[in-house]
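Hey L., structure's done. Input below.
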Amino acid sequence: MADKPKITYVRGRGLAEVSRLIFAVQDVETTEEHITTNEEFQKIKATGKLMFNQLPLIEIDGLCLIESQAQGNYLGHKYNMLGKTDLERGRVQMLFAGSNSFNSVSGPFWFFMPAEARADAKKSAIEKGKTRYLPVFEKVLTENGTGFLVGSEATIADCALFNILSCMKEMPEYNNILDNFPQCKAFVDTFSAIPGVKKYLESPRRFPPPDDAYAKEVRAALY
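Output:
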């Protein structure tokens, strides 16, 4: 029997969460090693497994994969989650990249900022989500009409979109932002109902959204 895929990362969602969701869609069991100190980070770097000395790391099929975009695409190819036609594959790639950009712009990264900068950062993140990204995904979901972004089943683009939308739904800081985007709100429920995803979300392997304690641990471990 082949070894289970192994994820090495901090104790949180972060850049590993989209890959975790891809594994969940496929109901693939994984193992995880959590880096909690800088000493542990230096030790994993010394193994030579981290091409650019960064995490997350996914060990699968004899490969040491880094870079979250590359990880998503490798897993998408492995599990046939990139679309069924050239047209679908092109749309999946656009929406995958767009979802990751959405997360980088509108995700709750204010926890990593000085206290005096947080209010403005939070306001900017929410405003850009409302005006730049959520209307686009609302339109795509409406036009596709299946509950997913492309085709009739989950792709890597759906995993990336769920990553940010589920966070928005869980965190009070977003002030029920999804109420104004019913297709996006329904998408969270549709994706959550996928059997493997449902099992993952209900398990202790699903980390909570980021907070001050998480940001402190990440800084101590990686910087």
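Residues 6-79+200-222 form a domain with the Glutaredoxin fold (CATH 3.40.30.10). The chain has two domains: 6-79+200-222, 86-192.

-- N.
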